[in-house]
Amino acid sequence: MGIGHGVDSLIVVLLLSSMVSTCVAYRPGDIVPMSKMGQYHSSRTVWHDMIGKHCPIFGVNREVLIPIPKPTGFTGADPYKM
């Protein structure tokens, strides 16, 4: 156990301390911002920010319904990707 062990421990401590800000970024009940984009055939929509009631809530197990407008020419035969 020479210098290498001390360096490894220091790296682990630095990595853990840098993750603290990420871990406390959201608290239960906070709205997690989201954006959506769709693709049908070779046509893509631009990114749209979602409003709060359609976004997930951190630490809350729930489903949200996201309104999805049908693209031009949509028949249901081909997939619409989100």
What is the compact description of this entry?
With 82 residues, the protein is α+β, with helices and mostly antiparallel strands. Helix content is 26%, strand content 12%. The strands form 2 sheets. A 3-stranded antiparallel beta sheet has the order 3-2-5, with no helix packed on it. The protein has a two-stranded antiparallel ribbon with strand order 1-4.
Overview of the structural elements:
This protein is an alpha+beta fold and 82 residues long. It has a domain of 42 residues. It has one helix and five strands; from the N terminus they run H-E-E-E-E-E. The strands form two sheets. It has a three-stranded antiparallel beta sheet with strand order 3-2-5, with no helix packed on it. Strands 1-4 form a two-stranded antiparallel sheet.
Rg, Å, rounded: 21 Å
Mean pLDDT, nearest integer? 82
What's the order of the H and E elements? HEEEEE
Query: Quick one: how many beta strands?
Result: 5
Major β-sheet annotation: 3 strands, antiparallel
Q: Give the helix level as a range of percent.
A: 25-40%
**Secondary-structure content class:** alpha+beta
Low-confidence segments: none
In angstroms, what separates the terminal alpha carbons? 52 Å
| Strand order of the biggest β-sheet | 3-2-5
User: Any idea what the shape is?
Assistant: elongated
Helix segment tally: 1
The percent range for strand residues is 5-15%
